[in-house]
Design a protein that fits this description.
alpha+beta; binds adenosine-5'-diphosphate; binds (3R)-5-hydroxy-3-methyl-3-(phosphonooxy)pentanoic acid; 9 helices; 36% helix; 322 residues
Length: 322
């Protein structure tokens, strides 16, 4: 960084779906076809974050992600920065708006974290920016960005005017529970494989109705602070979602992942636990804190990485000289 450079740096946490999202009405603006819900997470005793710095300089443009230069593409943060560039240049009398982001200890849900950390920087620089229009602009990078923008347990509602996320439980309410991620050693498929295919199914209108209905249920569970109920709902949603995703020809749950899920179903008969599978190569097993070790030991296998996660909060400004 040159000594005259002005900058702001923010971090945001990655996310896991609770009522899973499948189907976008407009692939460029990534507008969801139904409401959804999720939590922000961090690895226990570590900081799972996207760390993003926006700097203002008079020298040249620099855009990097995980140390590599990035190009303009449909989901690129460059397109998002361009939406705010003129206002930033006028307000801060600068020539160039630069972007640098690094992901740290993220298993999945990185795009939400990346979009939210960038959003937090822009909000800092342009505090009058309306949060609703900000959330909808950030969707270019990630359709479920609201989960990371608000942290804890969130619901994202979709209307004709756009999408709006609200937090329905703060992360502290999840203090008695741990999420163990079992990461399988294969590459994940892009989430767009799900989004493009699921909406072609004849069952899809019913899925849209069910997902929206589940959000009403979830709100009631959150009001009662029924954390187990919330993760039971997530467990059932994983089953409904993946049976449709598979009918649409997209296999996310491999036979090895399914085998582990069957074992969770067996354990659940005696000790409470549940699972979630989003679009990646993780099976997330939720347990009470005191049962986490026993259950992980029962599920442990070769080549499957085990990581302990907890629910996390909203983005933070970590440093700035502006
Ligand atoms: P995930 O489950 O990790 O979100 P996706 O395939 O949905 O997986 O999204 C990955 C994409 O998100 C990356 O290819 C990149 O375009 C974008 N992304 C990830 N991290 C960041 C970041 N820190 N800043 C900006 N964009 C990011
Ligand atoms: C496939 O925007 P992810 C999905 O709702 C899309 O979590 C989220 O998750 C499902 O694995 C979901 O791409 O984060």
């Amino acid at each position: 960084m040159d000594s005259s450079e002005r900058y702001v740096e923010a971090t945001a946490h990655p996310t896991i779906g609770i009522v899973l999202l499948g189907g976008l009405s407009d692939p460029n603006n990534r507008i969801p076809l139904h409401g959804s819900s999720g939590i922000a997470y961090t690895i226990k005793n570590k900081e799972s974050v996207a760390r993003t710095r926006i700097s203002l300089s008079d020298k040249k443009h620099v855009y990097t992600f995980n140390g590599k230069e990035i190009e303009e593409s449909s989901r690129s943060p460059i397109a998002l920065i361009q939406k705010y560039e003129e206002r930033l240049k006028t307000k801060y009398r600068t020539e160039y708006v630069n972007f640098k982001s690094e992901n740290q200890d993220i298993l999945s849900g990185s795009s939400d974290a990346g979009a939210a950390a960038l959003g937090k920087c822009i909000q800092y620089l342009l505090p009058d920016e309306d949060p609703f229009s900000m959330e909808n602009n950030l969707r270019i990078i990630s359709e479920s960005v609201g989960r990371s923008l608000y942290g804890g347990l969130t619901v994202t509602d979709v209307s004709n005017h756009g999408t709006r996320t609200r937090q329905i439980l703060n992360p502290e309410e999840f203090g008695g529970y741990e999420i163990t991620a079992f990461t399988f050693p294969h590459e994940r498929r892009p989430s767009d494989d799900i989004h493009f295919n699921i909406k072609k199914l004849p069952e899809y209108p019913n899925r849209v109705k069910n997902a929206n209905y589940k959000l009403i249920e979830l709100q009631k569970l959150a009001e009662k602070k029924d954390i187990r109920g919330i993760f039971e709902l997530a467990h059932n949603d994983t089953e409904e979602y993946h049976s449709l995703v598979e009918k649409a020809g997209v296999i996310i749950i491999t036979p090895e992942m399914r085998q582990l899920m069957k074992e969770v179903d067996r354990i659940r008969k005696n000790i409470w636990c549940s699972y979630i599978v989003t679009g990646g190569n993780n099976v997330f097993v939720v347990t009470r804190n005191e049962d986490s070790e026993t259950i992980s030991d029962k599920l442990r296998r070769r080549d499957v990485r085990i990581t302990k996660l907890i629910v996390a909060g909203h983005p933070k400004i970590t440093s700035s000289n502006i």
